Amino acid sequence: MQSNMQDSQALIDAWHTNHRVTVYLIENLPPELWTMRLPGYTRRTVRNVAAHVHNGRCMWVRHIGEKHGVKVPKMVDPHKVTQRQLSRDLERSSKGMVDLIHLGADRGGKVPPAKWQNFPTDLVHFLSYFIAHEAHHRGQLIMLAKQLGFPLSLEIAGGLWQWKKLSKDGQGKP
Q1: Cα 102 to Cα 15: distance, rounded to the nearest angstrom
Q2: CA 75 → CA 51, 89, 139, distances in Å?
């Protein structure tokens, strides 16, 4: 049983590091970029992409955990949320994700299946899926910043890769 607790704590620690990287990016996007439209889209903005990360977390917390007592965080309005609000709300959805990891650990290392899902229910696949999802959207945001004329500084872009500093053992900031 001790190994299961250690394993789930390691997964939670990895999730927290991923979460800190996402929040670091959101907080360091140039404010001018937030409401800019995506090339090739008439209504989609940088804000919409960023809000999707939080709203995606909320959706999966609801589909997997709600019927098992996991509190579902409130989604944000992808057309109105500010960077500061999203940063705060990402903390709430991160807690929901951690609660899903706890739920899976309590169920022998597997999250309960949702009505529809496209990943295996074991905790390693679960965590890998969500980290990959957020990394994909972080990459989109970085590329959009460059395409829209606000490339991230080397300090900010490089800071996204400072996982050791952003881990529980680090200072929390790259």
Answers
A1: 12
A2: 9, 8, 22
What span, in angstroms and rounded, lies between the C-alpha atoms of 168 and 174?
Answer: 12
Q: Is 171 domain-assigned?
A: no
Range of the structural domain that residue 122 is part of: 2-166
Whole-structure pTM value: 0.92
Q: Residue 1 above 50 pLDDT?
A: no
8 CB-near residues (< 8 Å, 6+ apart): 101, 102, 104, 105, 109, 123
**Number of independent structural domains in the chain:** 1
Residue at 76 is within a domain: yes
pLDDT at 166: 85
Please list, residue by residue across 112-138, b when 16 or more beta carbons sit within 10 angstroms of its beta carbon and e when fewer do.
Answer: eebeeeebebebeebbeebbebbeebb
DSSP assigned state of 37: B
